[in-house]
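pasting input
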Amino acid sequence: MSLLSDPLSVVFLLSSLMSVIAAVLIVHHKSIVYSAFFLSILGVGNSILFTLLGFPIIALFHLSVYVGAAVTFILFSVVMLKEAPVVEPPVKALAVIAAGALALIMMKIFSVFTAEPSFFLNYRDLTALLVTKYWFALIVAAIALVTTLIEAITLARREV
Amino acid sequence: MEASWYLFVSSILFAIGIYGLLTRRNIIRMLLSAEIIFNAALLAFLSLASLDAGYGPVGGAIVVIAISLSAAEVGVIVSIAIMMFRMRRALDVYELKKFRG
């Protein structure tokens, strides 16, 4: 009950529940279009979790670049495709066991981290670090994004 | 809220993504499952970075670059999927073998 009395804990529970349900629907929904839509819901849930961890700028960036650009790109591209029937590999039981075992092992490892996050990302620190230490990675990321833009234009022309 | 709770959510998302990757052959569905894993990795990374004020900005900077590169990766895979659909009318990853050389 004490968990529910803290508003931040309630936000955490709701956003994590939203993320997990969206992830399950991405994998299980019959329509790929809806699966891509649920990926954007997962992105929104994750952004709320990033904000709770003290990274609101990263959450905004995730919402604008990932949900706003990448997922929307998938969504609109998927609309162009007709879903052809694919024979799925008959390994569902094995996959459930493998994924379950993996989740349990990871939870056991992560249970060590009992400290509470008490950090708030200052955008000045982030930009200073990006401009001074990670400037080359930033340029590579910018070039990669431009490449995606060119790909999107090429796809839209339908002459390939 | 302890950092371990965020890491538990990340583990669950990671497991769901792995399940999706193992059970699907449709290239778009595999991409979506890989994106679940990517989101889980981001959450775990930021959860661990938030524990130490010294690593916080570094974690933030790396995640910004990772999100940008992920957007580019999505573009490449969706382009491959659309090319594959135009040429073979299929989205089965096993069909990719026929595109060799």
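fyi Chain B touches chain A through 73 residues (CB under 8 Å).
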